[in-house]
Amino acid sequence: MEFTHIIAFNATLLAAILSPGPAMLMSIRASLSGGFRQGFTVGLGLAVMAATWTALALLGLDGIFTLFPWAYLTLKIAGALYLIWIAVQTWRNARTPLNPEGTTATQGKSFLSGLSVNLANPKSVLFASAVLLVIFPQDITLVDKAFVVLNHLIVEIICYAGFALLLSTPAARDSYLRAKTVMDRIAAGVMGALGVRLLLDR
């Protein structure tokens, strides 16, 4: 494995992180509604699960999905239903005002929320497998694989910490509070659509 492989992997990873999706929506909403700590903690959960999918891809989980399609189908349906459930809850609570200090979610709950959102998308392991297959040689060592996973984790943490820092400013939070109902319902609509798409995608 060469350093150019890591650069190519990180460029692809950054593009994936910045693309609209459940993880991005969860990170943005947590940072705006709960401040830096909640945004960062949700991002940490997202990062840990994303890196875990990469680790599983390196260990050949995509091959297991090929051998046992029902396992992938089960995970996909469960994940889609979870995203739809989040969308429904977000829509229902759109008019609920935040308390002056932000939301009351604990750090543990915030971390699990992030973890669950990325766990809800088993397509991530297939994406990771395709990216890894294109970028890295097939004979990389176990040490190299561990480095790729650690690198993935660090890049995700840095990105989500940056999002939380930018979006937890007083100006960003005030703007969110003024438009909370509309923004939450837009987020709910997008999240629900992503869940339905995952449910129907073949």
From TrEMBL:
Its main location: membrane. Keywords: Cell membrane, Membrane, Transmembrane, Transmembrane helix. It is found in: Cell membrane. It is a multi-pass membrane protein. InterPro entries: LeuE-type. The chain crosses the membrane at residues 6-28, 40-61, 67-88, 125-143, 149-170. Pfam families: LysE (PF01810). PANTHER family: ARGININE EXPORTER PROTEIN ARGO, ARGININE EXPORTER PROTEIN ARGO-RELATED. This is LysE family translocator.
